[in-house]
Amino acid sequence: MTITQVLSTDAVLKALETHLAMIEFNLNKEVIWVNGNFASAMGYRPEEMTGMKHQEFCTEAFQNSEEYQALWSNLKKGLKFQEKILRVSKNGSLLWFEATYIPVADETGEVTAVLKIATNITDHESRTHTIISDLKSMPEELADLVVANTKESIQAVQALQNQTDLISQTSKTISHISSQTNMVALNAAIEAARVGEQGKGFKVVADEIRRLSTNVDEAIDKVNSNVENITKEAQKVSSITNSLQTIIKETQIKFSATITEFEETAK
């Protein structure tokens, strides 16, 4: 079965010229024809661009590069070029195009011109750059926020530890006083026993002091137990905080690597 082209060549060319930016160069890299779409995108009128050199639309770095020489060398050999390119408009602003350079040959197969078909993707590239920039800043901002909060947490834990240390010291002081009180109660009991009936008052005082001392000891034990628990929990918080810092830093490194890979893919 023979397949025939439904659309005429003229219709196809007209459709391409209507919807795409197109420009044609001779092998001396001079503009021999340009359509309104391409001229408008670059900030020119079509007649202004006729006769201009291809390098006038390129950045200085690209003009002087080996890639530029290779581009035209390959085009003259009949090899097409398709890639995202950066060009300079009439007012000096930088524009991004998705472009295809197509060598045009005559009846003998010899390349006589180069046709470039392009799509202006500057807005897309600008949005992509903004997104990448925002994504890059996110892990840094997150890390800074976590580090700041972590420092505050560490300071809070340290302050709590200092308070528990003070409570422990106070507990020791009270325990010492309790011990001295027990000694006083014991002396009072001995004195009461020595004097017999006349020492009943001493005995009552001694018993009360001993009871109070016992209550103090029990309270001190509870305080010490609570202090010990608080210290353990503070140590846990500190450990978790340090682990979180490590995880955030590792995540930041992985995130940055992913963004770099995305950037390379977007080029």
From TrEMBL:
CDD domains noted in UniProt: PAS
All copies of domain Methyl-accepting transducer, residue ranges: 146-267
Ranges of residues in domain PAC: 79-133
Residues forming coiled coils: none
Top-level taxon in the UniProt lineage: Bacteria
Key word Protein transport present: no
PROSITE patterns in the cross-refs: CHEMOTAXIS_TRANSDUC_2, PAC
UniProt keyword annotations, A-Z: Transducer
Record Pfam families: MCPsignal, PAS_9
Protein name: Methyl-accepting chemotaxis protein
Organism field: Metabacillus sediminis
